[in-house]
Amino acid sequence: MQPADHSVPHRIRLSGVGKQYVSRGREPVFALQDVDLEIAAGEIYGLIGRSGAGKSTLLRMINGLERPTSGQVLVDGIDVAALTPPQLRQLRHGVGMVFQQFNLWGSRTVFDNIATPLKIAGWKDADITARVAELLDFVGLGGKAFARPRQLSGGQKQRVGIARAIAARPSIVLADEATSALDPQTTTDIVELLRSVNREFGITIVVVTHEMEVIGSLADRVSILSDGRVVESGDIHQILAHPEHPVTAGLVGSYTRTALTDTQRAALRERFPGRRISVAMDDELATSPLLTRLAREHTVDFSIIQGGVARVKNQAYGQVSLALHGQDAAIDQFVAELAERAEVSSW
Fold first, then answer.
1. Cβ neighbours for 64, distance < 8 A, ≥ 6 positions apart
2. For residue 300, which phi and psi values (nearest 5 degrees)?
3. Which residue has the higher pLDDT, 189 or 308?
4. Over the stretch 309-336, which tens digit does the pLDDT of each residue have?
5. 85 phi and psi, to 5 degrees?
6. pLDDT tens per residue, range 56-81
7. Which of 146, 5, 134, 151 is nearest to 78 (CA)?
């Protein structure tokens, strides 16, 4: 079996996609509304939002488990909703799936769990044996071929799930909350494994999660969903450093611990009277002495009220809030010059 062609510019495209559920005697429920997005071949794309935002529904449309009420879902230029059942089965051979609760067959060994999609695809026994051994080594479970799922930890189960998802050499892997059942260290390990899958095999990965930490560590680009709509999309660094929509800002703030409630702001105004500003930190600002240099030049002191700086793929982003001390005119000059180089807001 030959690997899929990874040269298609846009592996996945959604145009005006909506999904409506209608129950007798009740108002229609819109799981998705007017969704447009494009996912390029070979990238890792994140879909993030709070529970009920429509993330999993969107993901399931890519392999035809859900069909849109309106709009089109195209995979390699093919309209998924227009496929016949045999054509849809063929499409699914090229789309692997990683689940939140692993979905392993408890009565089968690790070997058999990984081998099953290969048997369905008609692989020869010798090729199956070689492929499963290769995959077990790749996911770090070389000695677990004949173990049962009940003998594995959660992280090991998810490694088996990932091996099974990529067994038939798909061009796309869909990961639905793949780390939600795992502890933080195991989550880090699984994120790194997914990055290796993308890096080693060029597989397009679409990740659904509510964990900003996972998206920040894994995705190249991201879409934020809220109430069935895409409210913001873009490069992961841009989204984290400069979120534009309130939903995005809330998710980013929960990740970097920089979001302040109205009650917290009121308490901080009492504790830090005078001029207060928040400064968006990008990689250039975080790695330079600009803040301290400008403060010295304008004879301004500052206290750090709260904030944080994190790194995503070796680029810094975040936000810090400062209380400024000095003459009003000097503070005005300091803020004006800082605003020429960074996003600054007063509160």
1. 80, 81, 83, 88, 91, 92
2. -120, 135
3. 189
4. 877 777 777 788 899 999 999 999 999 9
5. -55, -45
6. 999 999 999 999 999 999 999 999 99
7. 5
Give burial (CB, 10 Å; 0-12/13-18/19+) of 187. buried
Whose CA is closest to 235, among 191, 282, 190? Answer: 282
- Determine how β-strand 204-209 pairs with β-strand 44-48: parallel
Sign, CA dihedral 333-334-340-345, equals negative
Which residue type is seen at 189?
D
The CA distance from 157 to 218, in Å, is 20
Backbone angle region of 101, left / alpha / beta, with phi > 0 → left and psi within -120 to 50 → alpha: alpha
CA distance 331 to 336: 8
CB 231 within 8 A of CB 191: no
The confidence score (pLDDT) of residue 257 equals: 53
What Rg, from alpha-carbon coordinates, does the chain have? Answer: 24
Task: Specify the pTM.
Answer: 0.79
Dmax over CA atoms of the chain, in Å, equals 80
Residue 94 and residue 137: Cα distance in Å, rounded? 22
Whose structure tokens read 């301290």?
Answer: 292
Question: What is the C-alpha separation between 135 and 111, in angstroms, rounded?
Answer: 10
Strands of the sheet with 70-75, listed across from one edge: 29-40, 10-21, 70-75, 78-79
CA distance 172 to 59: 12
